[in-house]
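The instructor's notes for this session suggest beginning with a concrete chain rather than abstract definitions. Hand out the sequence below and ask the class to guess, before any prediction is shown, which regions might be ordered.
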Amino acid sequence: MSKKSLPSTEKQGKGRLGDQIRSIADRLKQETDIQIKATSRILGAAAQIAENHDQLISEVVDMVESDLELEKQVSQNHIYTIDILKQQFKTLRDAKAHFNLKVSSWQSLIDTLNAGLSKTSIIHEKPQSNQNFIDTHIPKTTVVLEPDVAEMFPTSEAVNEALRFLIRVTSKNHVEN
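After discussion, reveal the predicted structure:
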């Protein structure tokens, strides 16, 4: 080997090494750009989730406040009104199904319900078996709760309120979709 060929080979080796380093640096830059874009999308999605969460919480609070107000109105008056029932049920059909009554109008529904209230006591002085309310119009169904569920919902009223809330939320979401 001659001395002249050595520097030429070194230059080629250094040139290839430099090209490889540039290529690796370019790939790293591209991957970094992709990661930055992905992180930006993730943060945007997280912000949207937080916004949706806040909106959902507000809707839940509004529904609970509305339910509490309706409950307060019914318990204060111990009578049903068309306005109260229309706030609680979207349609007469829903109300009739809830109370398991065959009526032809809102007025006949409240007349039937209020007539039944005068015959029965709504609130017992001493609740029996965790039942606070009795309504003779509704056929009773016995459901056995698992212990973990019963711990969260110790009364029939708590179970019913949770299920009514679930019905409203799912029907509202079903209508929006």
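Then share the key points. The chain is about 75% helix and 5% strand. Confidence is low (pLDDT under 50) at residues 118-136.
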